[in-house]
Q: What sequence folds into this?
């Protein structure tokens, strides 16, 4: 999690969504960095807002003054990425080399269910415990380049050619999922899909505010970057694509 009162953003780091790459761009501009462990790096937005109330008060800011954002991935693609990462990369909790995805799903370990048995959902990073969305912008992973470009432009940050590629899964594409398993997974991630399917509607106001320079610090209200136009073109194609 990265927090900047000067540049007016709070970035929530989701897993398997290029968060490390985004952090490499934003970290030099952040006054508060939560890192060093997965629990700190992937702090949910609700917890961040609660635990940094004194910092907001000292800075003379409220949460409404900052762009609160992160990245979300199609839920099925997200857990498939986790599977590929744990099978193909050198990690602390690797999967057996011969474990296929259905066996991984059936095991339902910490990637799928938490220790208390609750589902591990991406939406929990962006929503309050009562389900209210706290984020202003949830970038779809498949549109990360143009929309994050709009974020950089709207915050008055220096443009970059492209995000660096970090922590990528080494394992290639997995075999097609059986239809019954795919249906089961979509039911499991129903709450995540309810958020995913509304991202176009949810993000439109934030993109308009970025275009207007609403979060840009005083003195940085320069001409808008072409990245903003690229983001608008990306959204004009409709809501994020769902895995077939």
A:
């Amino acid at each position: 999690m990265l927090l900047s009162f000067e540049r007016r953003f709070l970035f929530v780091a989701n897993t398997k969504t290029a968060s490390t790459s985004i952090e490499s761009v934003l970290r030099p501009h952040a006054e508060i960095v939560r890192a060093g462990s997965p629990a700190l790096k992937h702090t949910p937005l609700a917890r961040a807002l609660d635990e940094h109330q004194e910092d907001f008060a000292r800075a003379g800011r409220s949460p409404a003054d900052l762009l609160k954002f992160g990245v979300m991935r199609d839920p099925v693609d997200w857990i498939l990425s986790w599977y590929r990462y744990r099978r193909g990369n050198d990690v602390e909790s690797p999967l057996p080399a011969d474990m296929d995805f259905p066996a991984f799903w059936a095991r339902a370990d910490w990637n799928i269910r938490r220790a208390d048995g609750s589902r591990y959902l991406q939406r929990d990073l962006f929503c309050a415990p009562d389900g209210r969305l706290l984020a202003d912008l949830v970038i779809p992973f498949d549109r990360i380049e143009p929309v994050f470009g709009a974020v950089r432009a709207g915050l008055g940050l220096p443009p970059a050619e492209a995000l660096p590629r970090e922590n990528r899964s080494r394992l290639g594409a997995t075999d097609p999922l059986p239809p019954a398993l795919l249906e089961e997974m979509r039911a499991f991630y129903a709450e995540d899909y309810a958020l995913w399917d509304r991202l176009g509607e949810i993000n439109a106001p934030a993109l308009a505010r970025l275009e207007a320079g609403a979060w840009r610090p005083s003195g940085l209200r320069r001409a808008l970057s072409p990245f903003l136009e690229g983001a608008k073109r990306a959204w004009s194609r409709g809501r994020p694509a769902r895995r077939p």
